[in-house]
Design a protein that fits this description.
Chain lengths: ~170, ~900
């Protein structure tokens, strides 16, 4: 994929002296109560941290792992498996564009090109004002509404390239 | 048994196997990656596809993964089917999409399962023309090199490291085409069994870093069937040599012992054999320094010294072969031979021997430990003293998975399904030790106590199992735990008791024996495993010779000539005791290492290392195993005087006009005749006359290159390969190398190779059933069998109060020889003193503060580790580490603040 920027590990921000907040800790403990096995709470725990910070920094992994009682390597496996656990900082709004086959047939490429043009960033990048992050997603389960995209938790579709500007504007 | 039909031929196979295992056992080749005999099937790589047919008339068939399909009766399959072949070729081409094709610079090349499988599938040319994904590699410590670009994502590494070995710090990250196997952040791999990754990985992602700097292809090395001397388990190893150096250690499969896996001490601790400061010539003391002499001069001087001594005694060694010890004993006479083990080590080892030889319970092999369904560990941290046992205990706990999947009628080779069924369920493992162990995390219950407390628990368990066992008064908690352990052991099908000399207490060993004896009355399947201090401790105990302390008492500062065999006495007795005893002694030291003892000798004769000589070793279950010489050091430097200790002694005898042996088999026969307990050691391996088709067996692969040029830098004349009078093995590639001609005795397989199989997977070809016993039977011979019945050991009086010494055996650093290897040193902790928290508070000692430790003649200053898990009164010192003198368990200690 020529439009995916190369990830440079050295460029990632480092969170020094990471500590879970009281709220995060509370939410992780709440999630733990739902399962007999701490490992099952991995995703909930990662999501709790992501909810408060927007993403999950590397330094958070050992702390979260300790909180749910599994090894850091084990949790890192989960945290890198799911593309919606963000491991780099994202903008205030995350745009997920469906690039699966139904949307390919119903105008995905035009939609993507319009987003790239409007935002001036490629997939995996965040606008300089930190407002939007643009990501592909493999299916939003809304094939009847292609071409689709999701911004934060809102599904949009069908989206014509002409609609893009107005939709983006509604996310401050 | 089941009948299966493969490509029109009918075979009898084990119906409980999967098709891949069954076909490999038949000698049929099916390529595979994710399957491993010790890790079973997950069906991840899709490489082992075959065509399966409904019945004899079905002409269409369907592709199935052979590792995921049972070898049930009347199965019709085709391996040669065109569609199956094409499918397999496609799979390997997909797996290789991102593979860098860096075989010429890859250290896996030449013993690479991926190379073998690629050739086997006929995948000759590459279609993928695009950019390959690349990864950053990690630093994983001194043992393992990491090159992730070579990965084919078979998942064997994490399945071994996490599921099998219980490691926590190796993971798999990412998804789909971007999967990464490594640590969460780079750093030393923590498992003591990490080295097996180099053999489990089918390609060059994880390679032996200790081999890297002085690298040689497998086909260019010379190997021998050898025995690891890192502890008394006696794992079978294949040391690989080139240009007179040990380059690496590979696992040598033994179904009853190491199976496919070694510990890191055994695999990476070989560096002592390559040390530049080893004695290689006879060294004669002149004043304060040594003068180098030829072999003959050394022998003549040695003979003169022996002749001059009114008293001549011999001190043997538990780290020397039976042959070397026997040779010494016969030179000096049985009345003048001492075992060379400390009084404590010798008496505890003798006790273990008594339990195993006279008791009603058989000594467990590693395989038997794997199969145990309930275990009591009493006093022993096996990771420090017999590490392969610790790995086996993990399999014992994991055995619950097999029971549960069998109950659900899921074949136990269905690894992922079985793991899902078992979840976190484990077979019960009770661990009662002075200090926390790494296995505690899988224990059903743990107990921390000193030797008295451990013995009390053991005896309470024995009494709960059999009222005729001695009754012990125990507190309510101990009594309740003892009852629980007794009930659990009673309910088990294959119960196991583990103990040993590690915590230095006869009472603990006797209590463990009492449990085993009581249990054996209820269950004939009961087994016991006792760790002993060193590689040949049990063999030496069978000599019945007095110990080192007796030798020192005999010497007592009198004039004497003392021949010390492969023994650094400074590790076994205090400096003051040695100085006093040896005040008027003349020492002849035969050793392959420079030690404190060789430094004080009048004459040093250079002995063969484990890789330079043959010898027989008796492991912790009483199995005699022959370790064969890998290479002749004199081939590269004919001035080198190094030879087996027994040869030095034979030459001394000749110089003294006594009859002497000229071949190993003669020493063995003589040892059997002289020491009845050793009867049978000749059967440990075929004798030197053994031949296949009239030929010797080659130590090096047929493709070994440059044999005739190996010495060209030394002299243009090419000598013939060294002749070996002691074994049926031939140096170099000259000799039989076939896996097919006959069933080759397992004791004579120097390395795993079979046509088309260059990697360790070649062991398939030597096994009667893949993952099972070797075709020619597993090697070694048991020197004794357990007995019908033995009386219980009576209770001992409690030990003395006050602060007492507890040796803590470390996986890295406690064993003398491996501790000399640089990569092991990198993993060895700094010396410290472990103190119970209450004792520390009472004495005002802070965690990590410099602390004065005094015992015997010694006064040490060590950083304190204040621990809650150490029983009050116990003072732990890491045995054998630099700065730690010889330790006597239970000796009185004084602690004080400050350096």
């Amino acid at each position: 994929m020529s439009d995916t920027p190369v990830l440079k590990l050295a460029d990632l921000p480092k969170a020094q002296g990471f500590a879970l907040s009281e709220e995060e800790r509370h939410e992780i403990e709440h999630a733990l109560g739902h399962y007999p096995d701490g490992r099952a709470a991995s995703i909930d725990a990662l999501k709790a941290v992501q909810k408060h910070r927007g993403w999950v920094p590397d330094e958070a992994i050992p702390e979260i792992a300790k909180a749910i009682g599994i090894s850091a390597a084990d949790l890192e496996g989960v945290a890198t498996f799911y593309s919606l656990i963000f491991r780099r900082p994202v903008g205030r709004h995350v745009i997920k564009v469906c690039d699966s086959i139904s949307c390919h047939l119903t105008g995905y490429e035009e939609l993507r090109d319009e987003l790239v043009k409007q935002l001036g960033v490629q997939y995996g990048q965040t606008t300089p004002d930190n407002r939007y992050t643009l990501l592909p997603i493999c299916c939003l389960g809304a094939c009847d509404r292609g071409a689709t995209m999701m911004i934060d938790d809102d599904l949009h579709g069908p989206v014509e390239p002409a609609d893009v500007k107005a939709i983006l504007e509604s996310y401050k | 048994m089941a009948k299966i039909h493969v490509d029109g031929n009918t075979y009898e196979v084990n119906g409980a196997d999967n098709l891949l295992q069954a076909c490999l056992s038949l000698g049929l080749d099916i390529p595979y990656f994710c399957w491993h005999p010790a890790l079973d099937s997950v069906g991840a790589c899709r490489q082992c596809a075959v065509k399966q047919y409904k019945d004899a008339d079905d002409k269409n068939g369907r592709l199935v993964m052979s590792c995921m399909t049972p070898a049930s009766d009347n199965t019709y399959i085709s391996i040669a089917d065109d569609e199956a072949k094409e499918f397999r070729e496609t799979i390997v081409s997909l797996l290789m999409t991102n593979h860098p094709h860096d075989c010429p610079v890859c250290e896996e090349g030449g013993h690479c399962h991926l190379q073998d499988m690629t050739v086997m599938t006929g995948h000759h040319s590459r279609d993928y023309r695009f950019t390959k994904r690349t990864h950053q590699n990690q630093y994983l410590g001194p043992f393992i090199g990491h090159e992730m670009n070579r990965c084919i994502s078979c998942y064997r590494c994490v399945r071994y490291y996490r599921d099998y070995a219980g490691g926590k710090d190796l993971g798999v990250f990412g998804s789909a085409a971007n999967v990464y196997f490594g640590r969460e952040t780079e750093g030393v791999l923590e498992s003591e069994f990490s080295g097996n990754l180099t053999e489990v990985c089918p390609t060059g992602v994880f390679t032996d870093k200790t081999h890297s700097e002085r690298y040689t292809r497998k086909w260019d090395m010379q190997f021998a069937p050898a025995i690891c001397t890192g502890c008394a388990v006696g794992c079978n190893i294949s040391p690989g040599e080139r240009y007179g150096e040990v380059r690496r250690i590979e696992n040598r499969y033994h179904s009853e012992l190491n199976g496919y896996f070694l510990c890191d001490r055994g695999r990476f601790g070989y560096g002592h054999a390559n040390l530049k400061n080893r004695p290689t010539h006879a060294l004669v003391r002149e004043g304060d320094s040594f003068v180098t002499k030829h072999r003959g001069e050394g022998v003549n001087l040695g003979a003169q010294l022996l002749k001059s001594g009114k008293t001549v005694i011999g001190i043997g060694s538990p780290r020397a072969s039976l042959e070397a010890n026997h040779a010494l004993r016969s030179l000096v006479g049985a009345g003048n031979f001492y075992s060379g083990a400390s009084a404590q080590d010798a008496s505890l080892t003798a006790l273990c021997l008594k339990v195993l030889r006279e008791g009603p319970v058989p000594a467990a092999t590693i395989k038997r430990i794997d199969q145990a369904d309930a275990v009591l560990v009493l006093g022993e941290d096996t990771l420090g003293t017999a590490a392969r046992v610790a790995l086996a205990l993990r399999q014992a706990a994991r055995g619950k998975l097999q029971t549960m999947s069998t109950e659900k009628k899921v074949p136990d080779w269905q690894a992922a399904s079985a793991a899902d069924i078992a979840q976190h369920e484990l077979n019960p493992l009770f661990i009662a030790t002075p200090m926390a162990t790494k296995l505690d995390e899988i224990a059903a219950a743990t107990l921390r106590a000193d030797a008295d407390g451990l013995a009390a628990l053991g005896n309470a368990v024995a009494h709960a199992l059999d009222a005729s066992a001695p009754a012990v008064s125990a507190d309510a908690d101990t009594a309740a735990l003892a009852q629980r352990i007794a009930d659990t052991l009673k309910a088990a099908k294959k119960p196991l008791i583990v103990s040993g000399t590690g915590c230095g207490s006869a009472a603990v060993i006797e209590a463990a024996a009492n449990v085993a004896y009581a249990l054996a009355k209820l269950n004939a399947e009961t087994a016991i495993s006792l760790a002993v201090p060193e590689a040949n401790s049990l063999g030496l105990a069978m000599f019945g010779a007095p110990d080192l302390d007796a030798a020192l008492a005999r010497l007592n500062g009198q004039e004497a000539v003392v021949l010390v065999l492969e023994n650094d006495l400074s590790r076994r007795a205090s400096a003051s005791a040695l100085d006093a005893a040896f005040a008027q002694s003349t020492v002849i030291a035969i050793d392959h290492q420079q030690t404190a003892t060789t430094a004080t000798a009048a004459l040093v004769l250079p002995a063969a290392s484990f890789a330079e000589g043959d010898g027989t070793w008796v492991n912790f279950e009483g199995r005699a195993q022959r370790s064969f010489q890998t290479y002749d050091p004199a081939y590269y430097d004919r001035h080198v005087a190094t030879q087996e200790s027994w040869r030095w002694i034979a030459q001394l005898r000749t110089a003294l006009g006594q009859p002497a042996w000229s071949k190993l088999d003669e020493v063995i026969a003589d040892a059997e005749a002289a020491i009845p307990a050793l009867k049978g050691i000749a059967q440990a391996a075929p004798n030197a006359e053994f031949r296949i088709d009239g030929a010797k067996l080659a130590r090096a692969p047929q493709r070994q290159s440059g044999r005739t040029a190996a010495r060209a830098n030394i002299f243009v004349h090419e000598p013939k390969a060294t002749q070996d009078p002691d074994s049926p093995l031939a140096f170099s590639m000259e000799g039989i190398n076939s896996t097919h001609a006959v069933e080759r005795p397992a004791a004579l397989i120097p390395f795993a190779w079979s046509p088309g199989w260059n990697s360790p997977s070649a062991w398939n070809k030597f096994q009667a059933e893949v993952g099972g016993a070797m075709k020619g039977g597993d090697s070694g011979v048991h020197l004794f069998r357990h007995n019908g019945a033995a009386p219980y050991f009576p209770l001992r009086a409690a030990g003395q109060d006050g602060l007492r010494l507890l040796p803590l055996h470390q996986h890295f650093g406690s064993e003398e020889l491996s501790a000399k290897a640089a990569p092991i040193q990198e993993r060895t902790a700094q010396a410290y003193v472990a103190i119970n928290v209450a004792d520390a508070q009472r004495l005002g000692i802070e965690h990590q503060s410099q602390t004065r430790v005094e015992f015997g003649d010694y006064s040490l200053s060590l950083p304190a580790k204040v621990r809650v898990d150490l029983p009050a009164g116990s003072v732990g010192l890491p045995a054998g580490l630099a700065g730690i003198p010889p330790l006597v368990a239970g000796a009185a200690v004084r602690l004080g603040k400050g350096g």
